[in-house]
Amino acid sequence: MALNIGGLVGLIVFYLITLVIGVWASWKSKKEKRENPTEMAIVGGRNMNFWVGLFTATATWVGGAYINGTAEIVYLPSRGLVWVQAPAGFALALLIGGLFFVNPMRSKNYLTMMDPIQEAYGNMMGSLLFIPSLIADVFWFAAILASLGATMKVILDIQGYLAIIISACTVILYTLLGGLYSVAYTDVIQLVFIMASLWISIPFAMTNFATESISYTIDHSVFQAPWVGKIEAHDIGRWLDDFLYLVLGAIPWQTYFQRVLSASSAKQARLISYLSGMGCFTLAIPSVLIGAVAASTDWNQTGYGLPTPNDRGESALILPLVLHCLCPTYISVCGLGAIAAAVMSSGDSALLSASSMFAHNIYRKILRKKATEKDVLWVMRASMVAFGALATILAFYSHSIYDLWLLGGELVYALLFPQLCCVLFIPNTNTYGSAAGFFFGFLLRLLAGEPSLKIPPLICYPGCSLVDGAYVQRFPFKTITMLITLLTIVSVSYLAAFVFKRNLLPRKWDVFALQHRIPVALKKSSSKFPYLPLGHEYDAFVISPSIVDMQGRKSGC
């Protein structure tokens, strides 16, 4: 296959347009900056246009892994349409997020999802819980970069590492320049491109001479098993586990909260959450159709030949293969642009998410508490470059990185989701419970093993069996781990409060000063606590002659 010069030029033009929009958005954000440039960079000054907010929220979820993975699952003979859980899962996640999580986060003007955790459990737990979130974001960026590299190799016949480096540099540059504004406005053009390009390719792929009607192959075996798929009885627990993981595990991500916290009102934030869920579901339809076309194609009649992509172990590339083998060249290039746009729309979100939490929650609140706004901004930019470079390097190890990203997402589900639920909805949980839940949940997840990484399980749940040389857990162990973590946080918190407040353990063992917490209601304004709203109860920590408020700031008393 020869280098596709026209396709390469078209892709470069698309990258330049994206970069220009990102630079323009950066200029716009600088023009609108007031007293808090960090807030502008992280949540767009909490005044993001509704439609821009909706587009960027939708584009964040509709990434390269989403559109490629949906097509792959429909195509796989062992899976099929019934195993496509991400569209419905993400739609429900965004519905639940809008119903229950938006108001508590907006009411206290948080910048990141780590703010309530640090406020309730302290900086130590904030640092620990930042780790799984950082791992998931970096590996997410790396995985979608690797996917883009493989796609460009199929369609343009260029080396994957060139695509990875160019894409990463473009994303890092415009995200670094404008923060959330650049990410949001580039997401608009990227989402439009995704919708237009994928839908344009559908008629060409479906009417190719090598393709049988997908309405017939949905329940008839022609070239492979029907693409509707089926769920075996012994896989029901695994299916439910994966679905709950997508629904609940998609909530505790900074990329989500960054969008809803940037809206100009709580009402708009909830509406953005609901509508972006519907958008995610709708944008999965082209990928489902492409996967169905791939399952209905006689690959021996195409330039790809035999064996089939599944037999060659290239099912992960099924979307670009359909575009390349079943569509005209100019259509396949448009489809490649859609994949590139999807990668960039999710990559910039992951990059901004990780750097925002590091600069605000780690650097400002732990490493340098007297840091100025300018200092925090520069640390945020430096961390973007560092995390982006790390993800770019990791993207060259595509297979293992994708598996590690999945494992990172499971850690977010098992460890972060229960912690966030506790700080927002369950009163009186404390640092003892948080620490116990973190370590116990982490241990349980590791002991369950990971077949994709060849880690054998030390805990074999019911239904655990050996498949292709690796143990597979068919029991819903991810959800069980999450629930055990939640139960541990609550039970240990109340147990610690009981034993220390009843003086059943020596005071010197109370390392988190739990027994010194005294409920204090602020009845009138005080110059010492100008940032605390009146009429609420706060935990005052009576330590020497000073009071430390819930945000960790000391005031003379």
The name of the CATH architecture of the largest domain is Up-down Bundle
Distance between the termini: 76 Å
Residue ranges: pLDDT <50 for 5 or more in a row?
516-557
Looking at the structure, the CATH topology of the largest domain is Sodium/glucose cotransporter
Radius of gyration: 25 Å
Can you identify the CATH class of the largest domain?
Mainly Alpha
What is the CATH homologous superfamily assignment of the largest domain? Sodium/glucose cotransporter
Estimate nothing, just give the exact number of structural domains.
3
Strand content: under 5%
Number of helices: 19
Oligomer: single chain
- Helix percent reads 55-70%
Shape verdict: globular
Care to count the β-strands? Answer: 6
Spatial strand arrangement across the major sheet = 3-4-5-6
Structural class determined from secondary elements: mainly alpha
Mean pLDDT: 85
Short description:
The chain has 557 residues and is mostly helical.
Which labels suit this protein?
mainly alpha, Sodium/glucose cotransporter, 3 domains, 4-stranded antiparallel sheet, two-stranded antiparallel ribbon, 4% strand
What does this 3D model show about the protein?
The chain is mostly helical and 557 residues long. The chain has helices at residues 5-32, 37-43, 50-61, 64-75, 86-107, 114-121, 123-155, 160-206, 214-217, 236-249, 254-262, 266-283, 285-295, 318-326, 329-367, 373-394, 398-425, 431-447, 477-501; strands spanning 465-467, 470-472, 517-521, 537-543, 546-548, 554-556. It has 3 domains: 48-425, Up-down Bundle (Sodium/glucose cotransporter); 426-512, no CATH class; 513-557, no CATH class. Strands 3-4-5-6 form a 4-stranded antiparallel beta sheet, with no helix packed on it. A two-stranded antiparallel ribbon has the order 1-2. A hairpin with a 2-residue loop joins strand 1 (465-467) and strand 2 (470-472).
